[in-house]
Amino acid sequence: xxxxxxxxxxxxxxxxxxxxxxxxxxxxxxxxxxxxxxxxxxxxxxxxxxxxxxxxxxxxxxxxxxxxxxxxxxxxxxxxxxxxxxxxxxxxxxxxxxxxxxxxxxxxxxxxxxxxxxxxxxxxxxxxxxxxxxxxxxxxxxxxxxxxxxxxxxxxxxxxxxxxxxxxxxxxxxxxxxxxxxxxxxxxxxxxxxxxxxxxxxxxxxxxxxxxxxxxxxxxxxxxxxxxxxxxxxxxxxxxxxxxxxxxxxxxxxxxxxxxxxxxxxxxxxxxxxxxxxxxxxxxxxxxxxxxxxxxxxxxxxxxxxxxxxxxxxxxxxxxxxxxxxxxxxxxxxxxxxxxxxxxxxxxxxxxxxxxxxxxxxxxxxxxxxxxxxxxxxxxxxxxxxxxxxxxxxxxxxxxxxxxxxxxxxxxxxxxxxxxxxxxxx
Length: 426
Fold this sequence. Notes:
Blueprint: E1 10-12, E2 21-23, H1 31-39, E3 43-47, H2 74-86, E4 93-97, H3 107-116, E5 121-123, H4 133-141, E6 146-150, H5 156-163, H6 168-181, E7 185-192, H7 200-210, E8 214-219, H8 234-247, E9 253-257, H9 261-276, H10 286-299, E10 314-315, E11 318-322, E12 327-329, E13 339-340, H11 346-352, H12 354-360, H13 366-370, H14 381-388, H15 399-407
Parallel strand pairs: 3-4, 3-11, 4-5, 6-7, 7-8, 8-9, 10-11
Antiparallel strand pairs: 1-2, 11-12, 12-13
Helix pairs in contact: 2-3, 7-10, 8-9, 8-10, 8-15
């Protein structure tokens, strides 16, 4: 399954910024952002189908060869588009993901209906023979301008170890060219895992050389088939985030998924680099030094401004996910059902579900709730849930949380705690 990203607020669909175009980030944590995110999502991911021909080892959706039971019918898909249109301007961006959205037989009909209702679309297809010029031309004619593909290594060995299909690396590089030839803005998604850490600089070089518009970096959450994949540590995450700040100075925008602490790192770097320069950022270790050295060896010293938007979105705050069976979730990585598009609708679930209201209000336990960056970051709610069973707990992928828990004498941090029983949670 290839996925699309977490986006900053947008004003149009003219240029891609993490799934959309013409990205305009409001000052992070501003009153305008918070009010907008309470009223409507910025980005709606719709898992159009479970069907996919890939066998990715970290697949969030646990995708399969055929559609799953209870997937939205064509009238129900059109109704979802209509509900988003009814919100008025600015309408949320609807990202068609999966599985593989190209496996959905009525994809072009849904795209045409979205164009008619002025609901902006982005696609997150898998790289397969279905991703061809004819299909892309038809989608482009229906107003789709942005697509994301996954590239999980700079070599065939690393990428295909994840994707499970021989020849998929070369096919992915070719698909980037196919998308650009058909007039699409291209985003490359990379999932950070322990197995590909040392290749991240070379993936950045691939993005630069291919002329991609956005590099979206996913930090693994143990859900779906990802429970069998080794994730990175909090210390490694910190080094990767510092490296991503540097990578964003080579002509493409860098965003993250399930790593809102990247915004904290970017903010700290802006303040620090203005004072003392950026050669040896505080809090970095040897992984950062290696990645930065490799990037500069390949592309030379960075010469452009940082392109790392800082809109304070997170699971359930500006972002919401519609599962293939119509269930509404804070994100695709947080398997907690808070509503159903068939029963009550998406907008009501987003606005009123107690869990989502708590997430938007920053009502977190532990270090995440006490942090000065609670609004700008707030931690990955999906990782907090995967680690403790509590979506309002603290994110152990953040180095600040890890340090706080390591220093705490409380035995409650020795293992997962039971989730609190609120409506909208299992």
